[in-house]
Amino acid sequence: MNVLVTGGAGYLGSHACLKLLEEGYGVVALDNLANSNSKSLERVQKITGKTLKFYEGDILDREVLGRIFSEQKIDFCIHFAGLKAVGESVQKPWEYYNNNITGTLTLLDEMRKAGVKNIIFSSSATVYGDPAQIPITEECPKGSCTNPYGWTKSMIEQILMDMYKADNEWNIVILRYFNPVGAHQSALIGEDPKGIPNNLMPYVTQVALGRLPQLGVFGGDYDTPDGTCIRDYIHVLDLIDGHVKAIKKLEDNSGLSIYNLGTGHGVSVLELVENFIKATGVDVPYVMKDRRAGDIPVCYSDPSKAERELGWKAQYGVFEMCRDAWNWQMKNPKGYEEE
Ligand code: NAD
Ligand code: UD1
């Protein structure tokens, strides 16, 4: 069985390529390297001792998609490709809607032309907006997103639902990720954000490294036990394991399904910092700052549907997430760039 992994060179995509090779799948990765480095895929091949096919190209480019489907026998697609910087999406809404939505529409069209109608889509807990219930189940109504990035996820979900309604030969799994962090234990692949990180864990690892002076904790006056926001951090290896389980679901011609991928445990910003210090022995100086616009106080999943239907459950805790994120950062202080 062969899997097309769009966005395969990125943070989650590279971990997926690795796991799929380990599980015996053939892997075809497509990435335009807009936010990644092809070294991640060289390292995936080094870790596994197996080879994959890499196409450097764009999901908006029908020519490259057509070439992939004619040159390779693809059974499933895991669709990670997309732009994901929340702040940038507010500045460049057209670019985000075009890349993520037109890109997905183009991919879906080329897939159906090739008769490949099995897809797993990377969605996000951001589609719940300010969630109507905690913990968040999949039945929780979708909410109002605070930024164009979030809307692209919400709209692509709707597109997939309508495509399935019109043609139930499609098998579609929508995975709503909570907060993926950590890295493969080899410390050869990991998250490599360009510029100053927006997300908490890469910011913490860069402070620990001394590249950034201190962490700013966005808001200490929320209605939570320690006043800081609560999130559901999930180890990237658990998250990717959920995708492999979802492929098995596609193999059963399961139609359309939606799953939360989270641990079900809420962790505050300060708890994450404490865990990081315990797991690594490295200090993380921080200062309290104002709230960040668009943040919600509490967001964590009820992941029981994925356990029931996919037989999937997260195995790693925050300690391991911090340890593995740090190992990657420490051994690759400049990410995939050479020292
Ligand atoms: P990433 O930026 O590391 O990976 C995305 C990859 O897609 C990059 O390698 C980028 O170069 C590629 N890409 C972007 N536009 C493309 C295009 N038009 N054609 C071909 N390739 C293109 O991000 P990630 O963290 O690995 O996220 C993967 C997916 O998961 C994204 O869709 C993201 O929105 C979603 N997601 C991520 C998180 C998270 O916290 N990391 C949370 C929820 C959802
Ligand atoms: C953010 C995005 C979300 C996206 C997700 C994964 C926003 C509002 N939401 O989620 O749409 O799907 O990333 O890419 O941007 N924090 C600090 N200091 C920092 C960075 C973060 O205190 O320097 C806090 C935040 O306020 C938040 C928590 O840490 O409470 C987690 O932040 P982050 O990693 O950015 O993830 P989310 O905001 O949950």
Keywords:
binds uridine-diphosphate-N-acetylglucosamine; alpha/beta; binds nicotinamide-adenine-dinucleotide; two-stranded parallel sheet; 13 strands; Rossmann fold
Give a verbal description of the structure.
This protein has 339 residues and is α/β, with parallel strands linked by helices. The chain has a domain of 213 residues: NAD(P)-binding Rossmann-like Domain (Rossmann fold). The chain is built from 11 helices and 13 strands. It has a 7-stranded parallel beta sheet, sandwiched between helices. It has a two-stranded parallel ribbon with strand order 7-10. Strand 2, helix 2 and strand 3 form a beta-alpha-beta unit. The chain is globular. The chain starts with a strand and ends in an 8-residue tail after the last helix. 48% of the residues are buried. The model has no long low-confidence stretch (mean pLDDT 97). Bound molecules: nicotinamide-adenine-dinucleotide and uridine-diphosphate-N-acetylglucosamine (UD1). Uridine-diphosphate-N-acetylglucosamine binds next to helix 7 and strand 8. The site of uridine-diphosphate-N-acetylglucosamine (UD1) has 20 residues, from helix 7 and strand 8.
Could you outline the blueprint of secondary structure elements for this entry?
Elements: E1 2-6, H1 11-22, E2 26-31, H2 39-48, E3 53-56, H3 62-71, E4 76-79, H4 86-91, H5 93-113, E5 118-124, H6 148-166, E6 171-177, E7 179-181, H7 200-209, E8 215-218, E9 230-231, E10 233-235, H8 236-251, E11 256-261, E12 267-268, H9 269-280, E13 286-289, H10 304-310, H11 318-331
Parallel strand pairs: 1-2, 1-4, 2-3, 4-5, 5-6, 6-11, 7-10, 8-13
Antiparallel strand pairs: 9-12
Helix pairs in contact: 1-2, 1-8, 3-5, 5-6, 7-11, 9-11
The structure holds nicotinamide-adenine-dinucleotide and uridine-diphosphate-N-acetylglucosamine.
Nicotinamide-adenine-dinucleotide (NAD) binds next to helix 1, strand 2, helix 5, strand 5 and strand 7.
